Structures are given as structure tokens and as C-alpha cells.
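call fold(seq) -> C-alpha cells
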Amino acid sequence: MVPTVPLPRRSLDTSDARRWYENELGWATVPDSGTAGLPLRLVAGLRFDVLTVPAQAGDAALRHRGRSRAPGSPVALSGDRMLLLVAAGSADELPGLLDWLEWGRLTPDLGAIGAGGHIEAPRPPGFPVTADCSPGCSPGRTNPQGAAVWLRPPETGCGREIPLPTMSALGGVGGAPDLVRLVDTLATQCHRIRLRRACAQPLAFS
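ret:
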């Protein structure tokens, strides 16, 4: 089941949000974003990279890994995509990592955003949310208003270093790096969903 989250309006005060991201977390924002009705955007590739998957696959992967693990690793929902923050440099490692795990090109729905990229800044935790839903919208599946929201927000108050899955963070089953286990789980769930969709397609007869 895809996470159920409120659908916020675009009434976010982007100046306050920018200060929160830059001052509380030390994350860079894209200059001039958050103006003229456009959303505030966060720069990827400096403090973090992003793994992006369909929301359904991401939710299944989080449930499989257990939501209590790596509590400081942020997760957001943007439209129908789930964004999982990982250590900077991970985006460059993804293609080789998928080949090493023998997934290769079997999971085109699993992508990464690294240096030179950016994501929409989710509403910071504690900022007011108006949980309206326009007629016909489906709460929890997509956000027709386009606003990104945190499912697991970054933690503050314990320094600015937020623990993120990384190739060097050894531990767990077989001593595998956290990033390896995370990518393998995400790839598995993406592939399972693609197979289900393929099996659900009606057969075409000539």
C-alpha cells in the first residue's frame, strides 16, 4: 500500500523553507527557485544523492527492510515517485552496482539523481499543511498539486551530518554495504511490480 500523506497547497513560505534547509541542514538550494510560483529546489550531489523509484516499489522496499532501520535516512514523496536520499556520489555508483548485482537493465524504473541535478524541496517538518483534496483526487497515490512531502524527514539537532546509506557503511547480513542492500531491495521491488503489470496485460491475438 502506497503511503497516505496529506496533499498540501502551494502556500509554503519559500523564504522560511530556504532558511530551514540552508541553516538547519546545510543543504544548498537552487538560486531563484521558489519564486514566480515555482517550487523551491534542493541541489543534489553535494550533501546527498537521490535514488528515485515508483512510489509503490519504494513503499514495498521500505516495508521489506523495516521502517525502524536507518531512522535518519530521509525519504520523500514527489508525485508518484519516492525519493530516497543516499550519500553523495552514490548516483555514479548505481549503474555498476546494478550490474554487479546482476540486475543490469532489468530495472529501468530505478534511477538516481546526483551532481548537477536537483529535486523539489519537500515541505519542512512542522510547517503548516492544508490537507485539502480537490474533487476526484486520490489521497496517498499521487499529489495532483505537485508538492513534494517528507515521508521520513531529515533529523536535526544532532549536528548537520545526516546518516545516509553509503558504500562504506558496512554491516548487516553478510557484511554487505547498506547501499548495496538498499539498491538490491529497490531493484527487486521494481522488477516485481513490472512483472505484475506485464501479467495483468491482456494477451493480443492477431
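Residues 178-200 form the longest helix (23 residues).
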